[in-house]
Amino acid sequence: MIREIIVVEGKDDTVAIKRAVDADTIETNGSAIGNDVLKRIALANERRGIIIFTDPDHAGERIRKIVARHAPGCKHAFLPQEKAMYKGDIGIENASPEAIRAALSELRTESVDEAGEISWEDLMDAGLIVHPDASNRRLVMGKLLGIGYANGKQFYKRCTSFRISKAEFTEAYRQMEKELEG
Predict the structure, then answer these.
(1) Strand pairing of 50-52 and 89-90?
(2) Is pTM, for the whole model, over 0.70?
(3) Rounded Cα gap, residues 49 and 3, in angstroms
(4) Considering all CA atoms of the chain, what is the largest pairwise distance in Å, rounded to the nearest integer?
(5) Phi, psi angle pair for 111, to nearest 5°
(6) How far lies 179's CA from each of 67, 126, 152, in Å?
C-alpha cells in the first residue's frame, strides 16, 4: 500500500495504477482541473502527501505544474515516453505494471525553499541548453536523473527543486555521453 495519494489525469490511469500497486488516486479529469479537485488535492497533500503521476506529454506537464502549485513539497513520479506509448498514444494507462512500479520507486520530492547545486552554467557546459542537440540531450539526461523531459528553463527548475546534487548530475552526464556515443 502506498501511503500517499497518487494524482493522475483520468479513470484509465487509475485502472493502470491499481493493476500495478495498492494505492488511492485522485483524478484531475484532464487539464481543466476544477477548484473542487484542487481543494481535494491540497487536503490530501496535507493529510497523506501526494504523488503527481501525469502523462509524459505536454498536457501532462501542464497538469503537473498546476497541481504542484497547489501542493507544495509534493512528490513526483516520471514515466519515460517510450514506456507509456501504445499505437502512437502516450499515457500512463498504456504503461506496464512493472514500468509503473519502477517510476513509483524513483520518486522525486519537490523543494520549495532551498537552492539547488546545479547552475545554469552547468546546463550549458553539459550541452543541455544552447546546443544543437540540447533537446535530445535533456531527454536522455531527464531519464537518467529520473526527472523526465522538459525544456531548458523547466529542466533547470527541476534540477533545483528536486535538489539534484553535483555528483548525481556528473554521473548522469557521464552516462548520457556514453549513450549518445554508442
Answers:
(1) unpaired
(2) yes
(3) 8
(4) 49
(5) -105, 135
(6) 33, 14, 20
Q: How many whole angstroms from its chain centre is CA 173?
A: 19
Per-residue pLDDT in tens (0 to 9) along the chain, 182 residues: 899 999 999 999 999 999 999 999 999 998 889 999 999 999 999 999 999 999 999 999 999 999 999 998 999 999 999 999 999 899 999 999 999 999 999 999 988 666 779 999 999 999 999 999 999 999 999 999 999 999 999 999 999 989 999 999 999 999 999 999 97
Instruction: Give which of 133, 182, 149 is closest to 54, Cα–Cα.
Output: 149
Question: How is residue 7 annotated by DSSP?
Answer: E
For 148, half-sphere exposure in the C-beta direction (CA atoms, 13 angstrom radius) is 25
C-alpha cell at 14: 487509475
